[in-house]
Amino acid sequence: MANDTNxxxxxxxxxxxxxxxxxxxxNMEVFLEGYQRNIELISATMKIATETTESLMELQNKYxxxxxxxxxxxxxxxxxxxxxxxxxxxQTEVAKSTVDDAIKHAQDVSSILVKTNEKIVESxxxxxxxxxxxxxxxxxxxxxxxx
Length: 147
Hints:
The structure is a single chain. Helix 2 runs antiparallel to helix 3 (84-146). This protein is rod-shaped. 84% of the residues lie in helices and 0% in strands. It is mainly α.
């Protein structure tokens, strides 16, 4: 069978119990190998999703922390004895900077999600193509044994 290290022990026991199962017209070992690769794909996809979520949470935490620090600094500056026209000019610059930061943050989040989706879709497409080949091989094998 394929790489057993990616399966939890209870799954391995489940696969082992079906190895000796006989069904006319079905090579159980080939079937179980394909099924195991499907489970491994699901496991790998879940790992990618978990890692992506962690990355997004870290990015979000940094963004929020920076926003609160800027907000705190802006409050202090607005309470200072600087002239009103300076305060207004400063607030305008800070507002522009805040919008730019928000846009950059949204782009970063979008970039992470796009890369993750591409990785997952590529994995699923590859496994789908492998599965099609497995079915073709299984059908060929069964036709040969039927003769």
